[in-house]
Design a protein that fits this description.
Blueprint lengths: L3 H17 L10 E3 L2 H13 L4 E6 L3 E6 L7 E6 L4 E3 L8 H12 L2 E3 L15 E2 L7 E2 L12 H6 L2 E5 L11 E6 L6 E5 L7 H5 L4 H8 L7 H15 L6 H30 L2 H22 L24 H20 L4 H5 L7 H7 L3 H5 L29 H28 L14 E9 L2 E10 L2 E8 L2 H12 L7 H7 L4 H4 L2
Parallel strand pairs: 1-4, 5-6
Antiparallel strand pairs: 2-3, 3-4, 7-8, 9-10, 10-11, 12-13, 13-14
Helix pairs in contact: 1-2, 6-7, 7-8, 8-9, 8-14, 8-16, 9-10, 10-14
Length: about 500
Amino acid sequence: MAHPAGRDMLAALLAQWARERGDVPGDVAWRFHLAEDAWRDLLACLVADPSPFAGLWCDGRAVFAALAPQGGGMLVLSTPVEMQRYWGLSSACPAASVYERMIHDLWGVEALDARDLRPWLDHGAWEVTWPLSERRVPVQGAAVAEFREVAEVLRAGGTICEYGPADGGFHAPAYLRLALPGARVVDAQWWMGYAHRGIVARMRGSDPAQALRLAGRIDGAASVAHQAALARAMEHAMGQEVARPVAAVRAMLCELERVATVLFDVGGVAAAAGDARLARACAQAREHVMAFCGTVFGRRMLMDVVAFGDGGVSVADFVPRAEEFRARLHGAHARLEALYRHPRGLGGLVRGLGVLPAGTARGLGVTGVVARASGGEGDLRHLTPGYHDGWLPAGVEQAGDVDARMRVCLATVGVSVRILGALGDAVARMPPATDAASSPAGDGEGTGWAEGPRGAIRYWVRMQAGQLAAVGICDPTPAHMLASEIAMREAHDTDMPVIMRSFGLSPAGADL
């Protein structure tokens, strides 16, 4: 069930704040500067309905929150930092706790009434504390953070299982701790920070080309989506609008990336569950997609294909081969569907595993495949230039288990195949975009977004003299990490790899 009361409260507050600053009736206001009292009113709205929360960040002087109200778009609200403190949002929005912990690690700004005070990025190995703050100081002594103990496990004399970067396995750079008083998990905790590369600090002061290059390396599975979202945010801040052919090309590149990433995720779950045939078929189909991208665009993983303004990679070689590629991918998708539904296929192996209830998913603000598998609707492609509503999927799954997530993934591939065919036809009929290089200049704030392969990616930027002065990045991974912890509880320990892989987790997106 949705929370109409919470939505109504938020809409009323936004209308009130707009009137107070004299907005023209009917204008879509997306940016609000809030005093402490108004920020706490916002917190009260989120207590009633946490689902609009999309992200949180800081620039040292203020804390910013991104909201994604029903119907799409992006609102950015900020409140000044007073005495290095602000009222945290995690008491209302559990996913905000990840961002609050990152803000404290990077800026030394503390969230009042926070759900979780543990470090997220800084585990005692940095040379300075609060590296982005003007108050940063050298570290005098090491202090390593610790996991919380699980009383039930201690009483039962149970086992703590640990998976992480130092255990000799080929895992992502994240540390997972499972508490097992018996054969089933009663608590799961992620410990992050191993993939932190100082992306926000490195983006500040960069020009659009430099910022886009960094964005493309945040997550190799969503490189195009990150670059497209950041490019749109910078263009919004500069008052620029790209030509229709450029928007269509960006959509095409996003769909190619989506197919490759989803095939990787489904293949990973199949391999973890022991379905070798489906895993092999996914790997073959993904290799075909990546080889095609390498031939047509010169980049198998589609990094650095999006540029600020009307630049970017050419698709001249794509159009004549689009129908052949689409037909081959359509055949591969049909084979994957058949293998998944085979009596001994993956569908029968994962049904009922790793359930994420619909209410929990909505409260955490998960997006993408994870949300649609737990009854959630929403797809940022509806709001993205280059797409038509008639191309996009309708309907969701309700079970919230691994099976539902895999069925949504396979449906996503089918939708992307249709979109690629439609885009190929559309681009063939469009006049080519001009090659004139954009020369960004001026000041302004802007937002941009993209529906990434694993969920919504949103950016806010502040531009000064054509350079990026501040940036806020909202990746789907933090919410999905928390969701996976919940889905792993009460599951058998041998099912952990399957459940983890079904969330498509990318630690790099959570360690900004």
